């Protein structure tokens, strides 16, 4: 276990370093006015310029003894904390919802696989997993606008100020990882059907439900591996969904800070997401190891 944690920590550190090296690639645009009607724009790159930007960043960290102050005058870490806390209101429920309800729906889909409802669920799962989450978000927004025009009480669809502002981004972000988890659980249970212990369970007269519980227990280990995939889906879609929703969280602010060449702020917003990903891997590996030990007992 310790070796696995050390390996994950090493990979995490390499990813952080890689992100910093990419973030500080020279991106400044140089505009040259050749004449009154001719302008030339260029993005010059040289290794010396790249090293200079990295040295400036190192000096800034050493001088400020941290990330320093943002353009608003507040400490960068304090400002990043506000945006990250806002995004966590979406990320954590989306992760829990996808893992728990996705697993439950996968078990239901497997249990009813030969019935009409199971086949319908399988079809709907396949259909909705083909829809990009941003398209789903726009479709839901449009649906709400139409419903408001026909009598639904008006409420704000954009922004982050209201208590319900996180709900629409949460639903959009959860759908694809939820369906992924559901389909994976159903497929994992299907693979267990040929195992000897399943035939023994049925031979002993155990009902479908108790046999399903045994199969679920044996599938926990591969299902735990999906935790990092689910979190990856959520975090990678977060910036675009927050931008579409006008939800001023860390994802939207990260896009803005990168486009405005505010590398320090971009780093302060990206590091918590990388740490969340790292934490998900460590926790899922720990849970997986615990389950394997329980199986041996």
Describe the structure using short key phrases:
297 residues, mainly alpha, two-stranded antiparallel ribbon
How would you describe this protein?
There is one protein chain. With 297 residues, the protein is mostly helical. The protein has a two-stranded antiparallel ribbon. It has ten helices and two strands. It is 75% helix and 4% strand. A hairpin with a 2-residue loop joins β1 and β2. The model has no long low-confidence stretch (mean pLDDT 85). α5 packs across α6 (167-192) and α9 crosses α10 (263-296). It has helices spanning 2-23, 47-64, 76-111, 116-128, 133-149, 167-192, 196-203, 208-245, 250-259, 263-296, and strands at residues 30-35, 38-42.
Break the fold down into its secondary structure elements and pairings.
Elements: H1 2-23, E1 30-35, E2 38-42, H2 47-64, H3 76-111, H4 116-128, H5 133-149, H6 167-192, H7 196-203, H8 208-245, H9 250-259, H10 263-296
Antiparallel strand pairs: 1-2
Helix pairs in contact: 1-10, 3-4, 3-6, 3-8, 3-10, 4-6, 5-6, 5-8, 6-8, 8-9, 8-10, 9-10
Q: Gist?
A:
It contains 10 helices and 2 strands; from the N terminus they run H-E-E-H-H-H-H-H-H-H-H-H. The chain is mainly α and 297 residues long. Strands 1-2 form a two-stranded antiparallel sheet.
């Amino acid at each position: 276990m310790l070796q696995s944690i050390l390996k994950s920590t090493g990979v995490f550190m390499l990813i952080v370093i890689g992100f910093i090296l990419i973030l500080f690639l020279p991106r400044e645009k140089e505009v040259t006015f050749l004449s009154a009607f001719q302008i030339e724009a260029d993005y010059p790159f040289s290794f010396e310029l790249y090293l200079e930007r990295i040295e400036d960043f190192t000096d800034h960290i050493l001088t400020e003894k941290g990330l320093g102050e943002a353009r608003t005058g507040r400490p960068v870490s304090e400002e990043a904390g506000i945006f990250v806390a806002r995004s966590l209101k979406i990320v954590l429920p989306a992760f829990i919802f996808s893992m728990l309800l996705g697993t439950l729906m996968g078990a239901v889909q497997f249990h009813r696989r030969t019935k009409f409802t199971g086949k319908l669920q399988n079809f709907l799962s396949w259909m909705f997993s083909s829809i990009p989450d941003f398209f789903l978000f726009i479709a839901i927004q449009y649906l709400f606008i139409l419903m408001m025009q026909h009598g639904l009480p008006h409420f704000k669809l954009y922004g982050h100020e209201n208590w319900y502002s996180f709900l629409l981004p949460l639903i959009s972000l959860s759908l694809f990882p939820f369906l992924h988890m559901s389909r994976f659980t159903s497929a994992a249970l299907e693979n267990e059907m040929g195992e000897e212990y399943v035939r023994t369970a049925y031979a002993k007269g155990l009902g479908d439900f108790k046999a399903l519980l045994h199969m679920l227990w044996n599938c926990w280990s591969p299902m735990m591996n999906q935790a990092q995939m689910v979190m990856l889906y959520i975090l990678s879609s977060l910036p675009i969904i927050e931008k579409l929703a006008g939800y001023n969280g860390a994802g939207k602010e990260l896009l803005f800070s990168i486009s405005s060449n505010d590398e320090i702020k971009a780093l302060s917003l990206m590091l918590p997401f990388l740490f969340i990903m790292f934490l998900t891997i460590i926790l899922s590996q720990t849970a997986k190891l615990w389950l394997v030990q329980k199986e041996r007992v």
